[in-house]
C-alpha cells in the first residue's frame, strides 16, 4: 500500500475515533459486553442521547455489535466486533503513552 492509498483511510479512521466520546466508549467496551446503562454509568457527563447516537455510528461502522435478547423486559447488550477488538493494541499504546507523557492539572 502506498502513501496515497493510506491517507484517505487514515483520515477516515482518525475522524471516526476522534469524534467526541467514541474512543471512551470503545475503551469501555474493551472490558466486554455491556448494557447501555452500564456504559452510561461508567462514562459520567455523557448524556443518554449522545451515547445512543455514538453507539449507532459505531454499529454502522462495524465496530460495535448490538444484541437484542427476547426477554421481558427486552435486554440489549453492546460488544465490540472483531474489528472493534482489533483496536485493543492501539488503545494499549495510547494508555502507555499517556501514562508517560500526560500530566493532570490539579
Automatic annotation (TrEMBL):
Q: Does the record carry Transmembrane as a key word?
A: no
Sorted alphabetically, the keyword list is: DNA-binding, Transcription, Transcription regulation
Coiled coil start-end: none
Q: Which InterPro entries match?
A: ArsR-like_HTH, HTH_HxlR, WH-like_DNA-bd_sf, WH_DNA-bd_sf
| A GO MF term | DNA binding
- Boundaries of every HTH hxlR-type domain copy: 7-106
* Taxonomic superkingdom: Bacteria
What SUPFAM superfamilies does the record tag this protein with?
Answer: Winged helix' DNA-binding domain (SSF46785)
A single Pfam family it belongs to is HxlR
Give a yes or no for keyword Protein biosynthesis in this entry.
no
Per its record, how is this protein called by name?
HTH-type transcriptional regulator YodB
Gene name per UniProt:
yodB_2
Amino acid at each position: 500500500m502506498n502513501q496515497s492509498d493510506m491517507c484517505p483511510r487514515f483520515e477516515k479512521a482518525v475522524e471516526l475515533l476522534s469524534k467526541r466520546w467514541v474512543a471512551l466508549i470503545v475503551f469501555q467496551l474493551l472490558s466486554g459486553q455491556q448494557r447501555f446503562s452500564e456504559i452510561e454509568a461508567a462514562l459520567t457527563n455523557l448524556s443518554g442521547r449522545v451515547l445512543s447516537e455514538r453507539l449507532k455510528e459505531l454499529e454502522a461502522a462495524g465496530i460495535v455489535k448490538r444484541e437484542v435478547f427476547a426477554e421481558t423486559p427486552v435486554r440489549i447488550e453492546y460488544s465490540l466486533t472483531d474489528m472493534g477488538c482489533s483496536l485493543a493494541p492501539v488503545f494499549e499504546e495510547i494508555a502507555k503513552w499517556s501514562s508517560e507523557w500526560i500530566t493532570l492539572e490539579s
